[in-house]
Design a protein that fits this description.
Elements: H1 14-20, E1 28-31, E2 35-37, H2 38-55, E3 62-65, H3 71-82, E4 86-89, H4 96-106, E5 110-118, E6 127-134, E7 146-149, E8 159-162, H5 164-175, E9 186-189, H6 196-209, E10 212-214, H7 221-229, E11 235-239, H8 241-248, E12 259-264, H9 271-281, E13 285-291, E14 295-300, E15 310-311, E16 317-320, E17 323-327, E18 342-343, E19 346-355, E20 362-367, E21 371-374, E22 377-380, H10 381-389, E23 394-401, E24 405-411, H11 417-425, E25 436-439, H12 455-460
Parallel strand pairs: 3-4, 3-5, 4-7, 9-10, 9-11, 11-12, 12-13, 24-25
Antiparallel strand pairs: 1-2, 5-6, 7-8, 13-14, 14-15, 16-17, 17-19, 18-19, 19-20, 21-22, 23-24
Length: about 475
């Protein structure tokens, strides 16, 4: 299905039509809530291709999409791929500072951003009028179809690329997973399509499998249940752990036989939350384990192995010194490959976990490094700490996870928590910012002068 082109930086656009636009032109693929059929989506994508081309996108170039969840995002993403370009996905919640750094690093030919949005803050899909502007007259930095940024490690965020062949393979992987939504059914889509679960498990799989994608009108338990009830066809809710809690606390007004299951990914789900959801709705709560670098790794969509998952078809998982390693033929990182993350066809996940030798079931125990998940979004604490430490008036900082991102800051002069919060808001997306800021006169250090990161010790220095 995917054919490599002679130019390694150019994408063969044929895979888009073959994978995503096959099927009857009258099939509804999106319900916003007005239905969008396949023919309408195809027409909108074709029109967007003309706008991208007029702004400077050429085959082998890149388009940076800084759009909130919207029909505009879907259309411009598919139009970029159909133009033979690379899509650079920028979370719309990133600050101008973060976006500027990414653009300077990835030099897209065009940038697509909202000129105007409407619909309200709680809308899952918003109304967007986009602007398309030229940025750089250079080819894409790699031959990947999509570029995503990690939440950030020490220094700049990792740049993760996935080829068209890799995306096609993952979509086909979904078709072999027991428990996914089937043709003619619906996915109530809650996760962001900038990130891998919503992008591949929602948008691309839904278009390929002829499953209607239905974002609820608002991000609320009542709105999700209303979206389920709006049609008679079976519905799977796709979300992250935050959404489980949302639904667990929402009582349906009437029976919902259409509600088949909820599938979640992003982080470990506390057993009490999972039980509360099941008690409330009586449908399976499925679990997915995945990474931006490779997509879906393991699933338990019937909730029968919780907290373990079975490796997804075609994925091999092994355990090495307590860390989970995933089969990955090529390094997903753009630029110099880090041998501590990928080597010899294996990706080091930095996730602590075990693989049952008898059943092959994989159990994730948590993170080995500094990444944490906030509402299903990965945040690297070192990025937060480095940003804090670089602010004026800050002598040193330690950032830890203590039932939320918590920062301990040692000022080198007059400084208030409000000032710090304002400065951080200019530099970090909201989900990355510390929930708690502590100003302390002196951060604890080891005898060799290193900052102490033990929570027990840090708590003792706060008022």
């Amino acid at each position: 299905m995917y054919r490599q082109t002679e130019d390694p930086a150019a994408q063969d656009p044929g895979w888009v039509d073959e994978l995503l636009f096959a099927g009857r032109s009258t099939d509804v693929c999106l319900r916003l809530p007005e239905p969008v059929d396949r023919a309408t989506l195809h027409r909108l994508v074709t029109e967007a291709q003309a706008r991208l081309g007029a702004a400077g996108l050429r085959p082998g170039g890149a388009a940076a999409l800084r759009l909130p969840p919207s029909l505009s995002y879907v259309v411009n993403l598919l139009a970029t791929w159909r133009s033979g370009g690379q899509a650079v996905l920028l979370d719309h919640r990133l600050t101008d500072h973060e976006v500027d750094r990414a653009l300077q690093r990835l030099t897209p030919q065009v940038v697509v951003a909202p000129a105007r949005t409407g619909g309200g803050a709680l809308k899952v899909f918003v109304d967007v009028t986009e602007s398309v502007t030229g940025y750089a007259d250079r080819p894409a930095v790699s031959g990947h179809a999509v570029i995503q940024l990690s939440s950030g490690s020490t220094g700049p965020s990792k740049v993760i690329g996935r080829t068209a062949a890799d995306l096609v393979a993952e979509v086909h992987r979904y078709t072999r997973i027991d428990g996914v939504a089937l043709p003619g059914e619906r996915i109530i889509l809650l996760p962001s399509m900038v990130h891998v679960l919503g992008l591949v498990g929602g948008l691309l799989y839904g278009l390929h499998a002829r499953v209607e994608l239905v974002p609820p009108e608002r991000l609320g338990g009542d709105a999700v249940l209303a979206a389920i009830a709006a049609q008679d066809t079976p519905a799977t809710v796709l979300g992250v752990p935050f959404h489980i809690g949302l639904l667990a606390s929402t009582r349906p007004e009437r029976p919902l036989p259409q509600f088949r299951r909820m599938t979640t990914g992003g982080e470990l789900v506390p057993p009490a939350v999972a039980q509360a959801f099941t008690d409330r709705h009586g449908v399976p709560l499925g679990n997915m384990y995945g990474m931006t670098e490779v997509g879906v790794i393991g699933t338990d969509l019937h909730g029968s192995h919780r907290p373990a998952v079975a490796p997804a078809p075609g994925i091999e998982v092994r355990e090495s010194d307590g860390e989970l390693l995933i089969s990955c033929p090529a390094s997903p990182y753009v630029g110099l490959s880090d041998p501590t993350r990928w080597a010899d066809g294996w990706l080091r996940t930095r996730d602590a976990g075990t693989v049952d030798p008898a059943t092959g079931l994989v159990t994730v125990r948590g993170r080995l490094d500094s990444q944490v998940s906030v509402g299903g979004l990965k945040v690297d604490l070192t990025e937060v700490e480095a940003t804090l430490a670089g602010l004026p008036g800050v002598a040193a900082a330690v950032v830890a996870y203590d039932d939320g991102i918590t920062a301990y800051v040692q000022p080198d002069g007059p400084l208030s928590e409000d000032v710090l919060d304002t400065l951080l808001a200019e530099r970090l997306a909201g989900y990355k910012r510390p929930r708690t800021l502590h100003l302390v006169a002196q951060l604890p250090r080891t005898t060799t002068g290193k900052l102490v990161r033990s929570l027990d010790v840090l708590r003792t220095v706060t008022p």
